[in-house]
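Attaching the record inline, Q. Sequence:
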Amino acid sequence: MSRVIMKNGDVVNLESYDWKAYRSPVQLQAIARELRDKAEICKSDYPGQKVIFCFNTDFGAVPQTVENELASLGVEIQTWP
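Structure, as predicted:
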């Protein structure tokens, strides 16, 4: 993970996963928990700031399980390219 703090205070985490490597629901849930933990750390390190996770989609779309986990914390999800 690379973390960038923008001039406006937004905390942007750049993530890149090969989602095809996480085929089972158990694997996806483990990654979702790992990302939730990262998001909670960001929120505690930068209270009151918007937290954004930006995913590289060269290796597939972000799974709904992951999106749901982050959205439940109020984390904004963006993708590139």
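Residues 2-80 form one domain. The first helix runs from residue 25 to 45.

More tomorrow.
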